[in-house]
Protein: UPF0256 protein
Organism: Streptomyces filamentosus
Amino acid sequence: MEIRPTTEKDLDVFVDTLHTAFGRFPETAAEDGSGVWWSAFEMDRGLVAVTADGRTVGTAAAYSFELTLPGGAVVPAPGVTAVGVVPSHRRRGVLNAMMRHQLDELRARGEFLSVLLASEAPIYGRYGYGPATYTQRMTVPRHQAGFARPRAYGTAGGAPETAPGSAPDSGSVEVLRRSECGEVLEEVYDRYRRAQHGALSRPHRWWARGAGQPPVAAAPRYVAVHRDAAGVPDGYAVYSLDGTTLGVDETIALDDAVFTALVRFVLGHDLVTEVVLKHLPPGHPLRWQLADLRAAQASETDWLWVRLLDVPRALTARGWSADGELVLDVTDPFLGGRERLLLTVRDGRATCVPTDREPNLSLDVADLGAVYLGGTTPGTLVRAGHVRAHHPAAVALADALFRTDRAPHCLHWF
């Protein structure tokens, strides 16, 4: 079997093989190849597994994304996708061979991390990926969608002051069709993803070709566009109705007041029995804003998985919330690596160098990927038996170092 890179001439075979692996049939693309979820494939970043008799039996690919890290750094992040092996050739080492080839190739390109969305949770941990962000699906019955009365607090001068989260909105909301506001969606999303750690870029190619899921795909949707007092777009909610259920594909806002205004708008829609907000960050305060705390029913799932390819570069690229020193003993079972590193953080920046000091924590690279963006604490993984703490104080220090002010969140599907 041979693992080889792809070119544009391999696109049709690549797509057919991938769909066979998942037991599906390809949709029909437009004449220019756009309008389908795979139309943004970068065929110079793809791989195929080919048998000795020339049959293509496996696929893997990567997109060129950017990822926003804690502290605000925006770094290259190849998004691994389209990984599949046709049913007749599973459990023969094809997937292992492709993943090893891909990781070696990413390292050769100088990448220090990669990301993916896992179709099945048990698969990718063995290749060094850890679940780094989570997303929440929240359902609110329309008859329980009333907001709580704003809290008022006295000031030093005695005048009441409204709590920030319930302050009146000075902007406006306009309803447009998806086909009318593609540039607005692209611009607002790009501003948002640069400020939200854990978020991925959506290259212009994606928007132009309608690749992915709504609102990137040009499927019919209504868009509630929020504009500030000066008329500048600073948020949107993309939605559609299925019977009497209003489904919100995503809500993007540049601050909490805009988010609240958009949620008030969708929850106030007529002829609706329930509103389903499909992507909210964990810990979002919406349920506390409702008059009935129990009205919102939420479920949570993992979303973006992170794989560190160069641990020192990755740890020094992100920002940090506390000062301290931590010795990490990091193993990489799939690629056969092990390194002991001294992480030193001062004033939000880190250095990371090899050391022979005794470790504070021992963990594998998948668990380090899981805590990298702040979506899971090292202490959680210690309690779960994934990470070994060699000193009791190491857990509290690691939690303080990796902590972020808000949960990381990724909306982008790929």
